[in-house]
């Protein structure tokens, strides 16, 4: 999972990048994209590791990308630095300023969100128009044209010309014929309100606002990310904070993208794997290795909850909690899967 941070200048993207990753985005100062991977916390992985005491414990990973700062003229578009590098992200985290301070005008989160969202739509409009021109030229030259693609692009243009994001229409946003364009406004979006310290509330964004959202204090979370694990736990306890922004954002991102985790276990390794909710056992096998997918025979499946209740894999087997499933079995969140295959 790769998440791109966007937002207007002054929204706090760099602060939030550091809060989410624990790393300062030095590359951004050189005009380069900043990339960082963090482990997705999962208490089930912790529990499985205690049972198996493996040589390695591997958590799922979340990758964050912060576009490099534009090195252009001072009068360049305020959002010129948003476009490069984020087209290959799975989803976008839109950082929205919801705090004041010295040198800042009063926050206007609704207007800021709309301005940045319209920039994404404008970037997509340019791509869609160029493609439509190419299709028209191909038709004029007698070349075959994909009519499904052309129809979807026409529908896209109707939305984009109104400044509306393509994610408003799931039929367009998820269309396989348009995936190659990597439309920015079609990507799932998490709105992240960068609040004052001590302000836990999201602002009123109006009735048209439909995005998944979360409010955090960027500065506080940035400081928290620099603490040791012990100091961070004490800090959270003292201020009665149940979980960090990093944990909340990861949880919301999984939900936004419709992702789940399954596990493979053993003395050598306990590992979490990320797949789409609704993926089959065959697709889950492919997430591990294409050879396992090609040689798939059966999947031995046990719920993580059933294992915890039984206390051991052998005891779970005695209680009839393990089962053999075929290629079409839909993997559930928390499944422990052992793939039987032959290559």
Description:
The protein is of the alpha/beta class and 343 residues long. The protein has 3 domains: 1-39 and 62-99 and 187-258, P-loop containing nucleotide triphosphate hydrolases (Rossmann fold, 3-Layer(aba) Sandwich), CATH 3.40.50; 109-185, Obg-related GTPase Ych/YyaF, coiled-coil domain (DNA polymerase, domain 1, Orthogonal Bundle); 278-341, Ubiquitin-like (UB roll). Helices cover 38% and strands 21% of the residues. The protein contains 13 helices and 12 strands. It has helices at 13-21, 26-29, 43-52, 109-140, 147-161, 170-173, 218-225, 229-238, 245-257, 281-288, 290-294, 304-310, 313-318; strands spanning 2-6, 34-39, 56-58, 61-66, 91-98, 189-195, 212-216, 259-264, 269-276, 296-303, 323-325, 335-341. The strands form 3 sheets. Strands 2-4-1-5-6-7 form a 6-stranded mixed sheet, with helices on both faces. It has a 3-stranded mixed sheet with strand order 3-9-8, with helices on both faces. Strand 8 (259-264) and strand 9 (269-276) form a beta hairpin. Helix 1 packs parallel to helix 7 and helix 4 (109-140) runs antiparallel to helix 5 (147-161). The longest helix has 32 residues, at 109-140. It is flat and about 65 Å long.
